[in-house]
Amino acid sequence: MRIAISAAGAGPDAPAEERFGRCAWFVIFDEHGNVQESIANTARSSAEGAGVKSTQLLLRNNIDVVLTGRVGPKAMHAMLNGGVVVYTGVAATVNETLEKYLNGQMKPLAVPNARQHAGDTRSERLAT
User: Fold this and answer.
1) Which domain holds residue 104?
2) Counting beta carbons within 10 angstroms of the beta carbon of residue 78, is it exposed (0 to 12), middle (13 to 18) or buried (19 or more)?
3) Strand pairing partners for 37?
4) The domain spanning residue 104 has which CATH number?
5) pLDDT digits over 68-112, tens only?
6) How many domains does the chain have?
7) Which domain of life is it from (predicted)?
8) Could you give the CA distance from residue 69 to residue 84 in angstroms, rounded to a whole number?
């Protein structure tokens, strides 16, 4: 099993990121909590479809579980169709988020918990 955590930086000590599609990095762990790699989220600067493109990136990297904060409808649909289980409720850092997950303190997400976005607009950046 491979677990991806949305992050503001590479590595387990980086701040965890609430935003799924616009996070800078995904830090990847195995089911035992061992760091495997950090993947730059090349979809984050997409004019539109960042969530779906981020999902495609994770599916290409055989991710089974995503730990994040907010997921929009299209990304959520793509992850569910791809067999990815999504958990919400990130902590301050990637390591702390992983610990929450491993201790059963994160909730699985079955429906989107963010509105659909249309690109990375100025008002959206100010709101997050």
Assistant:
1) 2-127
2) buried
3) 28
4) 3.30.420.130
5) 999 999 999 999 999 999 999 999 999 999 999 999 999 899 988
6) 1
7) Bacteria
8) 15
